[in-house]
Amino acid sequence: MEGKLLPERKRMQDHYTMKELPESEMPYEKYLKGGAVGLSDADLLAIILRSGSKEKSALQLAQDILCRKQKNLLNLHQMSIAELVKIPGIGQVKAIQLKCIAELSIRMAAASYQKNLKAEGPGVVASYYMEQLRHETKEKLLLAMFDVKNCFLGDEVLSVGTVNASLVSPREIYLRALKSEAVNVILLHNHPSGDPTPSQEDLRTTRQVARCGEFLGITLMDHIIIGDQQYTSFREKGILN
User: Fold this and answer.
1) Residue 167: per-residue pLDDT
2) For the chain, domain boundaries
3) What is the pTM of this model?
4) Which residues lie below 8 Å from residue 147, measured CB to CB, with a gap of 6+?
5) What is the Cα–Cα distance from 152 to 156, expressed in whole angstroms?
6) 240: which residues sit within 8 A by CB, 6+ positions away?
7) In terms of Cα–Cα distance, which of 196, 192, 117 is closest to 149?
8) Beta strands in the chain (DSSP E)
9) Percentage of residues in the chain having pLDDT higher than 70
10) CATH hierarchy code of domain 116-233
11) What angle do CA 182, 186, 188 make, to 5 degrees?
12) Are 165 and 204 in contact, with CB atoms under 8 Å apart?
């Protein structure tokens, strides 16, 4: 039964400190025996936390974090520093460490796509930006830029807080595109509600930007709205021809 807790031992676990846990249940020992794949989410968090408090082991503290809000690792994205430090045993340093781990997960997901990223379809581009944007609590508008072969040149944040035609300047968008020598661009923004359905303001902004691009010879290939594990592509919907 190594690696598995009997019901009686499961009930007893809450009373163990990290040092008192049976060797087969200690995250570090479990890692050395079976690698990271065999570790639970709580085990991984306990290793990152390194230490607990007087009342709780690192493993128990990790379990406490995971049982909040989403009841999974998404808590690292969705809980603020202020919310994390309210958990007994989590100080500011540990809270910052956890938020940095969450940010690393976003950047690692993006890095796996970036090297070969091309504007080959809305799904490819949406996948690249999904983890970066789906956890944002405010609307963030990005400009993704591509060359004549649709190879990725980079991106820039255009605004945070609102996507509004009166605040998003086509002039600023295309100045950035020209500076990067982009010939094709894609707008992306998130809906914190998780619903990627475009608003009337989204439609108005997109059409205005597309018209301005025509005069400069820079194509607005798409406007993609990111929701929670879903997206809306203006090109797929026929809003952009």
Assistant:
1) 58
2) 7-107, 116-233
3) 0.60
4) 153, 181, 182, 183, 184
5) 12
6) 206, 210, 220, 221, 222, 223, 234
7) 117
8) 140-146, 152-160, 184-190, 219-226, 231-233
9) 84
10) 3.40.140.10
11) 140
12) yes
